[in-house]
Amino acid sequence: MWENLVLTEPHTLIGPLILEEAPIGSFGLRDYLVTSGPTLRESLAQAVDLIAVSLFLTRARSATGRDIVPSRVTVTHRAPRRARQPARLLGTDRIHFGAPYDSISFTEDDVRVPLPRAQPGVDRILVQHAELALAASQPVLGRLDRFRAVLTAAFRDGAVGLEEVARRLAVIPRTLQRRLAEHDTTWREQTERARHELTVDLLQGTDLPHPAVAGRVGYSDVRVLRRAVRRWSAKTPAELRRAAPG
User: Fold this and answer.
1) For 97-111, how does the pLDDT look when each residue is reduced to its tens digit (9 = 90+)?
2) CA dist., res. 138 & res. 173, Å (int)
3) Would you write out the chain's pLDDT as a tens digit for each of its 246 residues?
């Protein structure tokens, strides 16, 4: 649900806002990796590949019992429309947007303070478990899958366009086209694929009349819709609708 919210509007601060209300343990192993080591420095070193900037800070504050303020934060996406929100949530205005990578920096005093809830030996067991879990896991949403999710949302919003989809992904159109090429596909192929899938969903999953379906998927009229459906399935829209499972 969290990921879908971010995909729908990538410039919201849904992640940090959720973390403000999530107690320790809500994110399972990731939470305990940050809070169980002897110092924040050692805990963060163990968890660095597993959690994001917002989670780092929220859990670092909980682990130390301090209102830690980062000395510097870098994030890859563009600044959100409400520029004050990141500063409020992170506790600093030293935030650099559009950076090559995400990072968060702490002062030496903060990272070397002993953690009050440290459990000697538990951190090593958790790290071993994390390594096994990571080795057995697979990414839920790859880069191409993420693009397709955003493209589908754009279709449903009636906002399909290379620049608009690139904006939702927080990249420039040229970068988006290059990434698609890396997956041996193109913008045109992907929009056609998404249009096909949405057309089938609307014909077989709703009672919308054919002119409304044509408009939803970006076709100028029913004749264009009919030609497209015949090209995909050798059926008319009415025949495709009648062929719906169940």
Assistant:
1) 877 777 888 888 888
2) 28
3) 556 655 555 555 666 666 666 666 666 666 666 667 778 777 666 555 444 666 777 778 888 888 888 898 887 767 766 667 677 777 888 888 877 777 888 888 888 888 887 777 777 777 777 777 767 765 555 788 889 888 988 887 788 889 989 888 888 899 899 999 988 999 999 999 999 998 998 898 888 899 999 888 888 889 999 999 999 889 999 998 888 776
CA–CA dist 171, 211 (Å, integer): 34
- Residue in the block written with tokens 């969290």: 2
Contact 221, 178 (CB under 8 A): no
Structure tokens at 187: 């913008």
Q: How far apart are CA 216 and CA 204, in angstroms?
A: 14
Task: Name residue 8's beta-bridge partners.
Answer: none
pTM: 0.45
Residues whose CB falls within 8 Å of the CB of residue 190, separated by 6 or more in sequence, listed in order: 147, 148, 151, 180
108 and 18 in contact (C-beta within 8 Å)? no
Separation CA 173–CA 69 (nearest Å) = 35
DSSP state of 38: S
Cα(137)–Cα(18) distance, rounded to whole angstroms? Answer: 24
Phi, psi at 54, each rounded to 5°: -60, -40
Whether 190 contacts 166, CB under 8 Å? no
H helical segments located in 28-140: 29-35, 40-47, 53-64, 84-90, 108-112, 122-136
